[in-house]
Amino acid sequence: MTPLAELLADRIRRFGPITFADYMRECLYHPVHGYYSKVEAKRFADYYTSVDVHPIFARLLARQFAEMWESLGRPAEFVLVEAGAGVGRFASQVLDFCEAKLAAFYGALRYVAVERSAARREQATMHSKRHAAAGHFASSAELPAHIAAGCFFSNELVDALPVHRVVMDGGAMKEVFADFRDGKFVGVVAPLSTCAISEYFGVQGITLHEGQHAEAGLEACDWISEIGRRLERGYVLTIDYGHPAADLFDDHHMRGTLLAYQNHRASEDFYASPGQQDLTAHVNFTALELWGKRSRLETAGFTSQTAFLLALGQGNEFADLYDEGQSDAERTKARLQLKTLIHPEGMGERFQVLVQRKGVSGSQLTGLAGI
Ligand SMILES: C[S@@+](CC[C@H](N)C(=O)[O-])C[C@H]1O[C@@H](n2cnc3c(N)ncnc32)[C@H](O)[C@@H]1O
Question: For the whole model, what pTM was predicted?
Fold first, then answer.
């Protein structure tokens, strides 16, 4: 039993089974024992993201953010909010690149790295000390209350937001709760904890097959609606793995998409070592679009990471890949790392890019040119 398992077992013994969303929230974000609350000691042991592959990911996105700024009429202040910024690796790569190559945009850029974990916020501030001193960077536990002009960006945040689990059982949708029986955690099926779950599937026109398990990402819906409310003019750019609803809930996904990750190994053993393994579910991009519309976010485009990064890099033949003074061997290594990001069998087709906008008219963004 991990320390968190003891706490959760005690809570369940006293108050009864908890929703899977509550269980997942505690496993990932418990202030002391949550997987993401700890310093990044185990980071590369369990997973890595596009940000860790090569700074070209951040550099191409920096060019896209600069184009967004242009499309908004070059406002004096462009607030770039990164939600789920982790230790701030992406933030420092974007800021360094803008300072060196996109000076006018850098002058307007105010980067806010939003991160739930206090330990990670501290690391992010260390990474971007110089930019913070110059007024271009701040870290925060909360999303800014109001953005006049800017962009909300996230990479692999939405898949880490807690989900409810459901199963179609005897023609009715039921919910899977976490219970503690005979010394271990188990899933138990009971009536839905909230009618928001039936609304979630109903609004998307989804009926599950008998016996099918699925996740309802209610927190992701709240998150995107809230962002839409806080953004006056600008964009929301979300990168993650997932599908539109019609694919996510089809008969290829009878067991749902929830997975536990430990030591780069995926399993369905969600109840093993709470707080010591990552839990993720594929993102439902249709839900992000529908709940975004509730706060006037319109979809500008949806494409694969492959198409998005290729469109952004083609203009200068990926010149941003190289740093001055690099050897041939280093350049070859950089090209291979780029391949990991864009190759369809690498991260390229697994990851999708959704761009939403509000109060912006007209021109298509370069990253979406291939659609
Ligand atoms: C899988 S990591 C991705 C980190 C980073 N974006 C990257 O690409 O390397 C997800 C991060 O989102 C953070 N997070 C989760 N929910 C959050 C929320 N509601 N607000 C801010 N950060 C959150 C977690 O603490 C974690 O650091």
Answer: 0.96
